[in-house]
Design goal:
elongated; about 40% helix; mainly alpha
Amino acid sequence: MGKMTLVVEFEDGKEPPFQFSENFMGSGGMLRSVSAFDYKDDHLTDCEVGAVIGLFREHRRDFDVWCDEFEVDSEEIERKLNLMG
């Protein structure tokens, strides 16, 4: 089943009410969840991302060992972190 994430900005106090139905926006899709906050507030800032990546680079061998331990791709983690900042 495909899923989409939409981010829509409204003026304060002009947010529309949400209704959960079997035909969201006439698309036949079901609205599964709604969040009324700025999702970017929980993301790392550019400086925070830089600090984490700097640590990874300085201690690359340790980082790679931990990535191997958890069977994850260190380059993929770094790519995702760069998307956050």
